[in-house]
Write a structure and sequence with these properties.
CATH topology: Nuclear Transport Factor 2, Chain: A
Number of helices: 4
Helix content: 25-40%
CATH class: Alpha Beta
Number of strands: 6
């Protein structure tokens, strides 16, 4: 009986002693990351270019089919052109959001209407905590190919 108890303790103790990995997302970080995503959707649909740009770090990079844009000043025309063509975001849905220390990322898919035409997209954003705010430092936004699961 003592041998069985000892064997059970030897199996359980290592599991109890393990700490959570550093990449585990805390509830507050997940909330912060989702607030950036939801803020992008809300501000874009409100046609508030300045509010969208405020979500980015000053030296952020945006990569799209239209090119690579470095800094808020270069990102502004891309955001404005998207708004000017009449785009309306139906949704930005996260597939993954996680963080480690002062870095976080979100990846997922979007549904955007341009007139009567639906555009499906994929995104990846990398964020850095700057003071008490999360700012987008890298943003990849691509149209999904026809037949691709979105």
């Amino acid at each position: 009986m003592k041998c069985l108890l000892f064997a059970c303790l030897m199996l359980i103790l290592p599991v109890l002693g393990q700490s959570q990995p550093a990449s585990t997302t805390s509830r507050s970080v997940a909330t912060d990351v989702s607030q950036v995503r939801e803020g992008w959707l809300r501000n874009f649909n409100a046609r508030d270019t300045d509010a969208v740009l405020a979500l980015y770090a000053e030296d952020a990079t945006l990569v799209t089919e239209a090119g690579v844009f470095h800094g808020r000043g270069a990102i502004r025309p891309w955001v404005q052109a998207s708004m000017d063509q009449g785009s309306r975001l139906e949704s930005i849905s996260a597939d993954r959001e996680a963080s480690s220390g002062n870095l976080a990322y979100g990846a997922g898919h979007s549904r955007r209407w341009v007139g009567q035409e639906l555009h499906l997209g994929r995104y990846l954003i990398v964020m850095e905590r700057m003071g008490s705010n999360w700012k987008i430092v890298e943003h990849f936004s691509m149209n999904a190919r026809p037949g691709e699961k979105n």
